[in-house]
Amino acid sequence: MHKIIFLFILFCGIGFSSLAQKQISIEDVQAYGTFSEQKVEGLYSMNDGLHYTTLEYGNKIVKYNYKNGEKAGVVFDLSTVKDAAIKSFSEYEFSDDETKILLTTEKEKIYRHSSSANYYVWNSVTQELSELSAKGKQQLATFSPDGERVAFVRDNNIFVKSLKFGTENQVTTDGKVNEIINGAPDWVYEEEFSFNKAFAWSPDSKFLAFMRFDETNVPEFTFPMYKGLAPEHKENSLYPGEYIYKYPKAGETNSTVSVLIYDLKSKTTVSSDLGNETDQYIPRIKWMADAADLAVMRLNRYQNQIDILLVNPYTGDSRPFYTEKNKRYIAETFLDAFTILPDNDYFVVNSERDGYSHLYLYNRQGFEVRQLTIGEFDVTQFYGFDPKKKIFYYQAAKESAMQREVYFVSLDGKKQGKLSSESGTNEAEFSKGFQYYINTYTNLSTPLQTTLHSSDGKLIRVLEDNKALEEKVKQYAVSPKEFFQFETSEGVTLNGWMLKPSNFDPNKKYPVVMTQYSGPGSKAQEVLDVFSVDWYNYLAQEGFIVACVDPRGSFGRGEDFKKATYMQLGKYESDDQVETAKYLGSLPYVDKSNIAIWGWSFGGFTTLLSMEKGGSVFKAGIAVAPVTHWKFYDTIYTERYMRTPQQNPDGYDDNSPLLHPEGIKGRLFLIHGSADDNVHVQNSMEFSEALVQAGIQFDMAIYTNRNHGIYGGNTRVHLYHRMTDFLKANLMK
Predict the structure, then answer these.
(1) N or C, where is the chain less crowded by C-beta within 10 Å?
(2) What range(s) does the Peptidase S9 prolyl oligopeptidase catalytic domain occupy (predicted)?
(3) Which of 676, 680, 684, 688 is catalytic?
(4) Taking the model in full, what pTM does it have?
(5) How far, in Å, CA of 334 to CA of 324, rounded?
(6) Mean per-residue pLDDT for 300-309?
(7) What is the 3-state secondary structure (H, E, C) of 131-179?
(8) Is 629 among the catalytic positions?
């Protein structure tokens, strides 16, 4: 039986007034930042655990007391440095003894997680500001633990700069574009394992371990680059240029990855023994606390077994330390949760072995000591361990899949509880020593709140309450979001949210725009208790109902719900979106003949597949940067959920929009950036041809030189005006 369950309707909080006069514009939400939340930037916990610093005005590092939140002084002020070569910086990092600061300037984005920059070092003892290197921009500059050196990557090679002598030592020499990368991941590792630094200093500063990517045999992908505007590539003004990089599509050859360890004293390098198999992944390296061994994660290509090896830094010999297996795949939450405790006798892992994502404690010999968290909920982040109080801190979706709370549990399991007090989405950042933490909190009616707490959860001070934004929102006709649930014909309960027009009349019928992402993974959840004023509020203002539902495959509801889509991405996700449309169409205030669905990336893929399955259920749809066949997407992501096309041909073909275009009955708007390095425009080009040959009329827009985010200059405003006009033309005739 289909029924709506309104969990809460928020007409209070920030005061969504029916008397509000101002109207939201697309420029407000896509260009001007009218409703942007203020955050505490550049926050860094100092060694004493009693102070933290923040970056202010782009040129000043200010120190504050955790105990009372009051200003304790200025650690660094660039404006007072005589004849400084730079005027501002965007990021900073202290050396371990906090006598030196690494400043990031002129940052230039490469891919999603990577960038190059010019770095400067401030020495507070000598009061000198010096350029790290004058030989070209660097990547990933990082102090050694003793603060005597900085390691960085340039031109695919690793360098070590001695701050004492000012010398620059080149550790590797074989780096070459599209062949060998040292110290930084290749494209697919960066994108799918979510990291950009592939080197690590040993705690005693004697060794530098790094990953070497040999991508020589990885197939190349090429796309044209035009002159364009914002930015303008004048070199392509007459003949287009080409961007060529290595991109392994599902089933194709990956980089061969090795782990090497450089001895700074002898200036020699040894190779780690990672076994005989080379068709595998090395998603993380991490030193043990005593620097005696390097822990290397080795993940098989199926991604259903991960081994942690301990490598001797002098010889490269390895021995097995820990193994985790899963009948489907190892979730990405495992990678960052693995933590060696300070005493070096215990470590923590995140496993789904009991059906939910939980923390487990192991001893140095690899034997399980105890399961630290237990229950029918997912642990979503591990914050760390306080060795003095013997307390573990973590974030979980315990009270609702749509919310996040901060919890603690003792080493012996006898003490446990919740630190966060507000209902919504909470995230903590603990001080060194775990005496304090800074909590960021938000819910549907509350913009981001940044608060300072003692480790027992007691509020010390509000650092940022976004009161100015709260007052601003009161001036606009902003509708409240409403959470709801419904049960599908298969008996599956799904969570969703809905936005109604500000002048909503239950006796009228409204067109609906369904928004969704629908993808798997911990960062792919859309129905969350967080504040936002965005394009969806604009659409509600213009007379649409906007609704979003997380289908099967989404995060926060246990392993079986999340991994139901294994080997058949798109099947259940699109089934659930079609069910959502039918359910919404049954509501008395919904015009079931005017329902649209839209999405970006995986959401674009789901849009296409839902329209093909749903037929006349959808009057229109917008697919932005969609995958149209998983054979076009990368190895790590696709094979994690689908295995290879050779192993699972039916899973790839049965749920490919490319092979079923004739099912689309509503009007489709297909959108892509021509320089999308993630989901290639090839997906939309091949799909548009399939539509043409199937006799399906559609609209299409290609944005020149734009990547997967489709932004730059006026691009975002143009895109959202186009999409709005399309929805109005097709749903409001």
Answers:
(1) N
(2) 537-731
(3) 676
(4) 0.95
(5) 9
(6) 98
(7) ECCCCCCEEEEEECCCCCEEEEEECCEEEEEECCCCCEEECCCCCECCC
(8) no
pLDDT digits (tens, 9 = 90+) for 377-418: 999 999 999 999 999 999 999 999 999 999 999 999 999 999
DSSP class of residue 255? P
> How many alpha carbons fall within 13 Å on the CB side of residue 699?
17
At residue 680, what is the residue type?
H
Write out the DSSP string of 13-31. TT---TT--B---HHIIII
Cβ atoms of 717 and 27 within 8 Å: the answer is yes
Annotated active-site residue 660? The verdict is: no
Quick one: 705 exposed, middle or buried, by C-beta within 10 A (0-12, 13-18, 19+)?
Answer: buried
DSSP state at residue 235? G
How confident is the model over 196-219, as pLDDT tens digits? 999 999 999 999 999 999 999 999
SS3 content of the chain, % helix, strand, coil (to 5): 15, 35, 45
Q: Is 684 known to be catalytic?
A: no
Report whether 658 contacts 612 (CB < 8 A): no
**Cα–Cα distance measured from residue 133 to residue 166, given in angstroms and rounded to the nearest whole number:** 9
Residue indicated by tokens 């006009």: 725
Which of 453, 629, 660, 708 is flagged as catalytic? 708
* Residue 156 amino acid letter: N
Sheet holding 60-65, edge to edge: 44-45, 51-56, 60-65, 71-77
Please state, in angstroms and rounded to a whole number, the distance separating the CA atoms of residues 59 and 43: 14
Residue 278 — φ and ψ, nearest 5°? Answer: -110, -20
Q: What's the rounded Cα separation, in Å, for the pair 63 and 611? A: 54
**Please, what is the angle between helix 602-614 and helix 571-585, to 10°?**
60
Among candidate residues 647, 524, 575, 609, the one with its CA nearest the CA of residue 192:
524
Give the Cα separation of 336 and 320 in Å (integer): 19
- Nearest Cα residue to 143 out of 156, 168, 160: 160
Peptide bond into 231 cis (omega under 30): yes
* Alpha-carbon gap, residue 144 to 170, rounded angstroms: 16
Domains in the chain, ordered, with CATH? 26-35+470-731 (3.40.50.1820)
The string of pLDDT tens digits covering residues 455-485 is 999 999 999 999 999 999 999 989 999 999 9
Nearest Cα neighbor of 385 from 417, 413, 347 is 347
H or E element in which residue 485 lies: strand 481-487
For 537, the token pair is 């509020």
**Alpha carbon distances (Å) from 228 to 44, 222, 313, 674, 717:** 40, 18, 49, 11, 17
Of the candidates 6, 33, 18, the residue with the CA atom closest to the CA atom of residue 532: 33
The model's pLDDT over 681-698, given as tens digits with 9 standing for 90+, comes to 999 999 999 999 999 999
494 has which bridge partners? 486
Q: Residue 240 contacts by C-beta under 8 Å, 6 or more apart in sequence?
A: 224, 225, 226
